[in-house]
Amino acid sequence: MPLVTTKEMFKKSMKEGYAIGAFNVNNMEIIQAIMDAAAESKSPVILQASSSAIKYARINYLMKMVEAAIEEHPEVPVAIHLDHGPDFETAKMCIDAGFTSVMIDASKYDFEKNVEITKKVVDYAHMKGVVVEAELGTLAGVEDEVNVSDDDARYTNPEQAKEFVEKTGCDSLAIAIGTSHGAYKFKGEAKLRFDILAKVKELIPNTPIVLHGASTVIPELVEMCNKYGGDIPGAKGVPDEILNKASKSGVSKINVDTDLRLAMTAGIRKVFVEEPNAFDPRKYLSPARELIKETVKHKMIDVFGSSNKI
Ligand code: G3H
Ligand code: 13P
Ligand code: ZN
After folding, report:
1. Could you give all domains of the chain from N- to C-terminal order, each with its CATH number?
2. Ligand 2 mutation target, pool 255, 262, 295, most atoms within 8 A of CB
């Protein structure tokens, strides 16, 4: 199957009440792990690259690796998506390179400017058959290269969300309901504003909703990192039960990066500690790749509900 947009994926997921995982990719091992997980759990999948990932891996390498992945797993519906596109130029570069979906994240600007920038990307993307995710509201933490302090964090206003979607024509919308990027999402109890999600779904029922900053920060992976020489104290994410509830409550796309980073790091650290003389990258990257695959499969099967949906 050639690369697809997220249109059909979201249509089916909204009808049946589950979410599609969108996993950040930076290198070959991560792409292989996610794709193997999707194939084994028979799940559609979104591979996404941030502008930093594109700088790191280079866009041609990313596209060619994604092409190889879909050749290897032709039965899996796959979209390739730009995560947190910072401007029109980056979105255009990705569209021209063959991405099937782009995010324009102009959420740091005021409403009118966010609308203006988003609309410009939507017009170009739609002309090329590509879909657009936009963002309204600000997540606490680090958004790619944009720093947003806790004090500035603000939830999405549902009425504004409706107006924003009408004015921009964006295909899906990322909203702020209490998540944040990275490994330190909550100091106390993890809580999401499901009341805001419900209101947004009531006002724009046909717009797929996206949850950023949605890693669980899987405790076993943090412990494994720490056991093998890491120092990641007090890390806390969104528990599986809450993500499962979100998947059944109208969230169509759930973004995961931090859990993949933890899995990769834990896998590599374990080899280095247990076999200090190991210096063949294949020796420490293989278990890391395996751990990412198991992490992604768990999410697809047990949390998002996207398995057996191909
Ligand atoms: O939300 C941001 C993603 O985790 C990507 O992070 O810009 O370091 O690739 P990155
Ligand atoms: P996490 O940091 O929670 O994995 O969020 C990733 C994300 O939102 C990518 O856009
Ligand atoms: Zn994000």
Report:
1. 7-216+235-257+296-304 (3.20.20.70)
2. 255
Cα-based distances in Å from 187 to 137, 156, 182, 238, 258: 21, 21, 13, 12, 17
Q: Are 78 and 35 in contact, with CB atoms under 8 Å apart? A: yes
pLDDT digits (tens, 9 = 90+) for 229-255: 999 999 999 999 999 999 999 999 999
pTM for this entry: 0.96
28-47 burial: b if 16+ Cβ within 10 Å, else e: bbbbbbbbbbbbbbebbbbb
Is the per-residue pLDDT at 142 higher than 90? Answer: no
144 is catalytic: no
3-class secondary structure, 308: coil
Kindly report the number of other CB atoms within 10 A of residue 273's CB atom: 12
Cα 285 off chain centre by: 22
Mean pLDDT of 281-300: 98
